[in-house]
Amino acid sequence: MRITRRLSILFAAACLGLVGCGALESEPDNAPPLVTDTDPYEPQTVYTASVNSGQGPEQVDPTTEDTAPLVITDAMVGQINGKPIYASAIFAELGEESLTRLGQEQPRNRFIQEVASSVKDLLEARVTNTLIVAEAEADLTAQERAQMQAVLVKEREKVVAKYLGVPARAQEALIAEGYPRGLDDYVEELRQQMLVGQYRMSNISPKVHVTRQQIERYYQDHIDEYVESGQVTLRLIRVDDDDTADIVENALNAGEPFADVAERHTVYSRGTGGRRDFTDNMETFDSLADEFDAAVQQLAVGEHSARIVTNDQYWWIYLEAYEPGNSRSLQDVYLEIEGKLRQQRETALFVQHIARMRNDGNYTPVNEMVITITEIAVNRYAHLN
Fold first, then answer.
1. pLDDT tens digit sequence for 248-299
2. Does residue 341 contact residue 216 with C-beta atoms inside 8 Å?
3. Disulfide: which of 40, 118, 230, 306 matches 1 by Cβ 3.0-4.6 Å?
4. How far is the C-alpha of 219 from the C-alpha of 20, rounded, in Å?
5. Does residue 190 fall inside a structural domain?
6. Number of domains, the chain
7. Range in 61-70, 124-133, 250-259, 361-370 the model is least confident about
8. CA gap 234, 260 in Å, rounded
9. Are 69 and 143 in the same domain?
10. pLDDT of residue 291
11. How many angstroms separate the CA atoms of 178 and 176, rounded?
C-alpha cells in the first residue's frame, strides 16, 4: 500500500526535527459542521453508490423515494483539533489507483487488513504532525510569523525560477514528485518544517545539556568505534608428530629463517608457508584464540614464540609484520560525540513532548477512524469481492 511521500516520513521526522506532512484537506462547500471530542458524530453520507453498479460514486438525492439501497462511500470520519477528516481525503493520500487495484486483486479479508494497517499509519502520523504544528505555530511571535512568511515567499519564487519562471511547469513537476496540490503543498511542507525546527530550538534544545564527563564516558564505552584494529601478519608452523616437532625446534634454535622452516615442515596453510594476515586478534582459531593472542602479545616484529602444545599438535608463531590501526583521540572526536549525545537527548525529550501533546490533544481516537474508513474503503474498492 502506497503512502504519499510527505506522510511516509512523518514519524521519522518527528524524531529528527524535520516534519513534512500531507497538506490539509480543503473542505467541500457542503461539509458538515465541525465536531469536538465531546460532540459525538455519526458518519454522514457525502457520496453514495449502488452496491452492484461497479461504477464510481455518484451524488444522489436521498429524499427520492425510488432509490436503490445506498452504501456510504465517503463521510466525515472524525476530527483533529476541530478540523474534519474525510475518508476521501485519506484515500487520496493512500492513492486511489492502489486501492482500486488492491480491491480487485486481493480477497476481502486481505484487503481489509492491508487498508486498515495503512490507514492507521497515516492517521497516527497526521495526528502527531497536526498537534506538533499547531503548538509550534502558537508559540510564534508576530515578528517570527512575518519573517517566516517572507522566507516562504522567497522559497516559492526559487522553485518557480527553477522551471524558467513558469508556475505551471513547477506545478506539474511537484505533482509528479508526490505533492498533490503542487506548489501549495510544497510550501506548506516547508512551513511545517520551519515551525517544528523553531519549536525545537525554543522548547527542546535549551533543556539539553551534555557534560565533559558524559562525553568521556561515551568515548570509553565505545572505544572500538574510534580505535581501529591493527593488521597483523603471522607465519605459523604446525606439525602433528614428536619427531617433526624436534626437527623444527632444532632448526629454529640454530637460527634458520622461520619462513624457510615453515615452508619445509608446516601442515598449516602449507601453500603460503604458514603466512596469514589477521586483525589484531586470533578469533579464527576459536578455542586456541586466547592462547595464541597471549603468545603474540609477547612478540616483537621478527620474533617467534616457544613451542605451543595443544591437542596433540605443535605450534610456533612468528610475528612477521604489524601495522597499528588508525586511532582517533578523545580530542579528535569530542565535538562529534557531543553532537551525537545532544541529538539523542533532544530526540528523547521531543518524543516526550509528542506523548504529552497526544495525551492532551483534541482528536477523534485513531482506532475509531480506522474502523470507519476501512468500512468505507470496502464499499468503494472491494464491494465486488
1. 999 999 999 999 999 999 999 888 899 988 765 544 555 566 788 888 888 9
2. no
3. 118
4. 34
5. yes
6. 2
7. 61-70
8. 14
9. yes
10. 80
11. 5
333 within a domain of the structure (yes/no)? no
Beta-carbon count within 10 A of 132 CB = 26
Whether residue 61 contacts residue 173, with contact meaning beta carbons closer than 8 Å, is answered with: no
The percent of residues in the chain predicted with pLDDT above 70, rounded, is: 78
| Pair (360, 263) in one structural domain | no
Residues 198 and 253 in one domain: no
219: in domain: no
Q: Which helix (H) or strand (E) holds 316?
A: strand 313-323
Task: Tell me, yes or no, whether 20 and 155 share the same domain.
Answer: yes
Same domain? For 201 and 52 the reply is yes
- Quote the CA–CA distance of 353 and 29 in Å, as a whole number: 36
Q: Which three cell numbers stand for residue 215?
A: 562525553
Residues 56 and 167 in one domain: yes
pLDDT at 289 (0 to 100): 67
Contacts of 48 (CB under 8 A, 6+ apart): 57, 58, 59, 60, 62, 70, 71, 72, 73
Same domain? For 9 and 92 the reply is yes
Average pLDDT, the chain: 81
Instruction: Quote the pLDDT of residue 224.
Output: 83
Between CA 159 and CA 68 the distance in angstroms is 50
Domain that holds residue 90: 5-208+346-381
Residue of 57, 65, 60, 55 lying closest to 86 (CA atoms) = 57
